[in-house]
Specification:
By secondary structure, the chain is an alpha/beta fold. The chain has one domain: Rossmann fold, CATH 3.40.50. Helices cover 37% and strands 17% of the residues. The chain is built from 8 helices and 8 strands; from the N terminus they run H-H-E-E-H-H-E-H-H-E-E-H-E-E-H-E. The strands form 2 sheets. It has a 6-stranded mixed β-sheet with strand order 1-2-8-7-3-4, sandwiched between helices. Helix 7 packs parallel to helix 8. The chain is globular.
Length: 214
């Protein structure tokens, strides 16, 4: 069936365009990186870590998952996130991943939340790790493409909310490490507002971990 589908709808590598494979070995090897500490222009008040630059095959993979429904790339991105989290977490402590908020219109257009999918793959590969999809972007949030740092902050101010009844029991564990995860860190505006909102409902964030930094 896979061969038949490839004949009808030929598939190219999302990272480099190599024909016949959705994600080639060379691009997969390029994702294997150690987390690097980064300092966005808008400081969320917690350490921020990136797994790589938003460029090359990494950028094309993120865009393919978000905008072109290339769900076969969720697994390699999830595996990379799991490796990064394993390097950063404190051994023996529970880990809770909170996906960054996404606009409802984007969820409908993309057929779901790509960041949430990647986080669930990562959690499935780690011991004592859960995903808590708690954050929502209010209807007033518009697409941030083309907005500067101050405009991004104003766009999000007061418009990220915690969904009703979404606080999981795992967050009540006194030793739980809670990490905000996202695909791209640009100015840090989303991370800032998300951390502020979560802290306001009693959820302390240990760090922000992203697939890539712009």
């Amino acid at each position: 069936m896979r061969t038949l589908l490839d004949l009808i709808l030929p598939q190219d590598c999302a990272g480099c365009g190599r024909p016949g494979v959705g994600w080639c070995a060379d691009c997969a090897e390029g994702l294997v990186r150690q987390p690097v500490r980064v300092w966005p222009r808008s400081d969320p008040g917690v350490p921020c870590w990136a797994l790589g630059r938003y460029a090359g095959p990494r950028r094309r993979a993120v865009v393919a998952v978000k905008e072109h429904h290339r769900r076969e790339l969720v697994a390699p991105l999830g595996r990379e996130l799991a490796r990064g989290l394993a390097a950063l977490r404190t051994p023996g402590r529970p880990l809770v991943l909170v996906p960054a908020p996404v606009r409802r219109v984007a969820v409908r257009r993309r057929g779901g939340d790509p960041v949430g999918r990647v986080a669930r793959v990562a959690a499935s590969l780690l011991t004592d790790c859960q995903v808590a999809p708690m954050l929502l972007a209010d209807r007033g949030v518009r697409d941030s493409v083309g907005l500067g740092p101050a405009q991004r902050r104003r766009n999000l101010a007061g418009r990220i909310i915690v969904s009703a009844g979404s606080l999981p029991t795992s967050l009540r564990h006194p030793d739980a490490e809670v990490v905000l995860v996202d695909d791209v860190l640009t100015t840090g505006a989303t991370a800032c507002e998300s951390v502020r909102v979560l802290t306001g409902v009693g959820v302390p964030i240990r760090a922000v971990v992203v697939t890539s930094v712009a």
